[in-house]
UniProtKB/TrEMBL annotation, chain A:
Protein's organism: Hymenobacter wooponensis
The protein's name in its UniProt record: Tryptophan synthase beta chain
UniProt-listed PANTHER family: TRYPTOPHAN SYNTHASE, TRYPTOPHAN SYNTHASE-RELATED
InterPro entries per UniProt: Trp_synth_b_CS (IPR006653), Trp_synth_beta (IPR006654), Trp_synth_beta/beta-like (IPR023026), TrpB-like_PALP (IPR001926), TrpB-like_PALP_sf (IPR036052)
GO cellular component terms given for this protein: cytoplasm
The protein's annotated pathway: Amino-acid biosynthesis; L-tryptophan biosynthesis; L-tryptophan from chorismate: step 5/5
This protein's UniProt keywords: Amino-acid biosynthesis, Aromatic amino acid biosynthesis, Lyase, Pyridoxal phosphate, Tryptophan biosynthesis
Subunit and interaction comment: Tetramer of two alpha and two beta chains.
Claim: Transit peptide is one of the keywords in the record: no
Primary gene name: trpB
Automatic annotation (TrEMBL), chain B:
Subunit text: Tetramer of two alpha and two beta chains.
Lyase recorded as keyword: yes
Residues annotated as the enzyme's active site: 47, 58
Function: The alpha subunit is responsible for the aldol cleavage of indoleglycerol phosphate to indole and glyceraldehyde 3-phosphate.
Pfam family, one: Trp_syntA
CDD domains attached to this UniProt entry: Tryptophan_synthase_alpha (cd04724)
Name the record gives this protein: Tryptophan synthase alpha chain
InterPro entries from the UniProt entry: Aldolase_TIM (IPR013785), RibuloseP-bd_barrel (IPR011060), Trp_synthase_alpha_AS (IPR018204), Trp_synthase_suA (IPR002028)
Pathway connected to this protein: Amino-acid biosynthesis; L-tryptophan biosynthesis; L-tryptophan from chorismate: step 5/5
Naturally occurring in which organism (per UniProt): Hymenobacter wooponensis
Catalytic reaction annotation: (1S,2R)-1-C-(indol-3-yl)glycerol 3-phosphate + L-serine = D-glyceraldehyde 3-phosphate + L-tryptophan + H2O
GO cellular component, one term: cytosol
PROSITE patterns per UniProt: TRP_SYNTHASE_ALPHA
UniProt enzyme class: lyase
Length: 398, 260
């Protein structure tokens, strides 16, 4: 059993969740990564380059903004961690900057990635351009259609976007295709996974690279509220990378309530949902034992959310452990309240959030937070990529 | 205790043909007629694919056959019901089940092994079952039911890991021919594949070897047999079954074309 929430066991387990369930073809690559990632990340030269890129390229630290009008509306102190102000418009780049440096040190020359909403794909294409590396991004055909601007951004950045045509043609299938690519290119390729999913060490690697979010939050909260610890930290969860980063340095602080917000789609029990913590059972997806949506025969079922970034039938093993142990509270938000939260944040704070992020904002009314409580919402991404969706659903939003 | 896999290798020694097909493809009830036809046509081992929604190690052909099989209603309970009585008709040909871990986990390992053994299955291939997990959680149950695990070896598998795999089973070693998923073409530079096969051969392992992935016709089968005790054909057979009226007849024709 894992004794802390932060650190998995040597074999990558958080409680009963995690591990590395991969075919032999992937074993040497994943093992190489497992044996080297902690040492490489601890190297002073790596840290120096990583920190410099976070500062000068990504634009960190990102502000912690006290959202006064949202605070007034929900009668509590709401702070927004402005990951939407990162270069490329979302938190995803924190991870890709770290992984591209890792890939270089492992001697890899070719980068592959999966993407749902396209934010991770853009963040990967961006760092590949920066480092002069070949970049191939797998994206579900459906997602390519609903997140067109990001497809063009990736191409403009020099990446090749390959459509995943199998299954539901969304994030799960894009991940399958990326894994198959890695099987076919075992020597020169590094797979930059975008979330805290996949075989060990990926969940730990990505959580560590996103942990900068909560590291900064603690310093900024001390400055703005007199305490490093808020009462609540709220983040949306698809695979769970922004939530892992926002929770990381609060995981071992029991006074901080962690709230993970999943996409309920048309409703948790509608058959069109991505609320994995409610609908999932322990099983294996993409090399990890975690909670996942599946039928009674163990076939993985198709999730649904209007939001391409939350449309995933599993959650990272850390989050499965947080749900199972009760350390985090999981809330499900349907499409429509998420769309309403887009308008609310836009009009009250002048910030247009990504549809994924809007799920976290929509949970503000359900927290039970008091007037003196400090609530930090991780504003994981900006809404530009979703404009077409927002226009289409203007009636629901306004 | 010996099982049919070892007996098949002892009896023939070389040029063994292992044919893979997906259970429930092209039609739900094709499973048993295909087993009979494949055995009668001269295959030495039969590998039945248990379809999974997300088969990571498989290329487009087996993915597609899995999707069709699932849509046809195939699942573990149906498969085990179909296999009842198969050993009255196909007595000696070893039968292996190949699939992914999640459906087996949901069915329950003990249930799965008991049903498989009752149906007369001899070996199990679960590519995403890690060796350590096999030893810790599965080995005892497999032994209890005299089921043999088959593990994959690739050109990147380290020698000490190959030795460990060789110690963990008494069946055969599944040599993946090169980088890629099932049904792909060999794109390696000339000599690279041969050097890999020769390196494995020179290790003098306990278990015989079958080469799979990208073997699909008489020429590639015969070439593989130069470097191992035999080979495995899957995607090429599935392709031969696509859209045909009489799947067993198509399987028979395909196998004859490989063995003639």
């Amino acid at each position: 059993m894992s004794t802390t929430y932060q650190k998995p066991t040597e074999r990558g387990y958080y409680g009963q969740f995690g591990g590395a369930f991969i075919p032999e073809m992937l074993y040497p690559n994943v093992e190489e990564l497992r044996q080297n990632y902690l040492d490489i990340m601890a190297e002073p030269a790596f840290q120096e380059e990583y920190q410099q890129l976070l500062r000068d390229y990504v634009g960190r630290p990102t502000p912690l903004f006290e959202a006064k009008r949202l605070s007034e509306k929900y009668n509590t102190r709401v702070f927004l961690k402005r990951e939407d102000l990162c270069h490329t418009g979302a938190h995803k780049v924190n991870n890709t900057v770290g992984q591209i440096l890792l890939a270089k040190r492992l001697g890899k020359t070719r980068i592959i990635a999966e993407t749902g909403a396209g934010q991770h794909g853009v963040a990967t294409a961006t760092v590949c351009a920066l480092m002069g590396m070949q970049c191939i991004v797998y994206m579900g055909e459906i997602d390519m259609e609903r997140q067109k601007p990001n497809v063009y951004r990736m191409r403009l950045l020099g990446a090749e976007v390959r459509a995943a045509m199998s299954g539901s043609r969304t994030l799960k299938d894009a991940t399958n295709e990326a894994i198959r690519d890695w099987i076919s290119n075992p020597v020169d390729t590094h797979y930059i996974i975008g979330s805290v999913v996949g075989p060990h060490p990926y969940p730990d690697l990505v959580a560590r690279l996103q942990a900068v979010i909560s590291e900064e939050m603690r310093k900024q909260l001390l400055e703005k509220t007199g305490s490093e610890l808020p009462q609540y930290v709220v983040a949306c969860v698809g695979g769970g990378s922004n939530a892992a980063g926002a929770f990381y340095h609060f995981l071992e602080e029991p006074s901080v309530k962690l709230v993970a917000v999943e996409a309920a789609g048309h409703g948790v029990n509608s058959g069109h949902s991505a609320a994995t913590s409610v609908l999932g059972k322990p099983g294996i997806i993409h090399g990890s034992r975690t909670l996942l949506m599946q039928d009674e025969d163990g076939q993985i079922t198709e999730p649904y959310s209007l939001s391409a970034g939350l449309d995933y039938p599993g959650i990272g093993p850390l989050h499965a452990f947080l749900a199972d142990s009760g350390r985090a509270r999981f809330i499900s938000i349907e499409d429509e309240p998420a769309l309403k939260a887009v308008a609310e944040c836009s009009r009250l704070e002048g910030i247009i959030p990504a549809l994924e992020t809007a799920h976290a904002l929509a949970a503000l009314g359900q927290l039970g937070a008091g007037p003196d409580d400090v609530v930090v919402v991780n504003l994981s991404g900006r809404g530009d990529k979703d404009l077409e969706t927002y226009i289409k659903y203007a009636d629901a939003i306004m | 205790m010996q099982n049919r896999i070892q007996q098949a290798f002892q009896k023939k020694g070389k040029d063994l043909l292992n044919i893979y097909f997906t259970a429930g493809y092209p039609t739900l009830d094709a499973t048993v007629p295909l087993i009979k036809a494949i055995s009668a046509a001269g295959a030495d081992l039969i590998e039945i694919g248990m379809p999974f929604s997300d088969p990571l190690a498989d290329g487009p052909v087996i993915q597609q056959s899995s999707t069709v099989a699932l849509a046809n209603g195939m699942n573990m309970r149906v498969l085990f019901r179909q296999l009842e009585g198969i050993r009255q008709e196909v007595t000696d040909t070893p039968i292996l089940l190949m699939g992914y871990l999640n459906p087996v986990m949901q069915f329950g390992v003990e249930n799965f092994c008991r049903e498989a053994a009752a149906a007369g299955v001899d070996g199990i291939i679960l590519p995403d079952l890690p060796l350590d997990d096999y030893v810790a959680e599965y080995q005892e149950t497999f032994r209890k039911y005299n089921l043999r695990p088959v593990f994959l070896i690739t050109p990147q598998t380290a020698p000490e890991r190959i030795r460990r795999i060789d110690e963990l089973t008494d069946s055969f070693l599944y040599l993946v021919s090169g980088p890629g998923t099932t049904g792909g073409q060999n794109t390696q530079a000339e000599g690279v594949q041969e050097a890999y096969f020769q390196r494995i051969e020179a290790m003098n392992l306990r278990n015989p070897r079958l080469i799979g992935f990208g073997i699909g016709d008489k020429a590639s089968f015969q070439n593989a047999c130069q470097h191992a005790e035999g080979a495995i054909i899957g995607s090429a057979l599935i392709r031969a079954l696509e859209g045909v009226e009489d799947a067993p007849a198509a399987a028979t024709r395909f196998i004859s074309s490989v063995l003639k």
